[in-house]
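FAQ: What does the model actually see?

It sees only this:
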Amino acid sequence: MQRRIISVALPLFCALALSGCGLPLLAGMTLVELSTAGSVISTAATGKGLSEHAMDVATGRDCRIIDSMVRADRKLCERRNSPALNKDWKGLASIDGEPYTALPILDPGSEARSAKGG
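And it is asked to produce this:
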């Protein structure tokens, strides 16, 4: 009987915990709520959500999901020096005119272009 309870309760507990719905992590907030709050704060401050920042790090380019869907001149991930970036909203951190950059600008292939003189 005890084994049957564990075989039912353990997968149920794991499913709830991994979905972020089951366990409060901080001040009664679940993982999903904390992630959503973090993404909203990130978007307001930098103009990008957490997933877009992760894509930036992974690709070395400037990635914006919504802009690429609503603007014909914007690809999902653009090179850092692309003219299409001039129309992107940079968030509240860029009110002074200069966009906030948390990471050094990484552009794969820029070393090869500068070596060729272009």
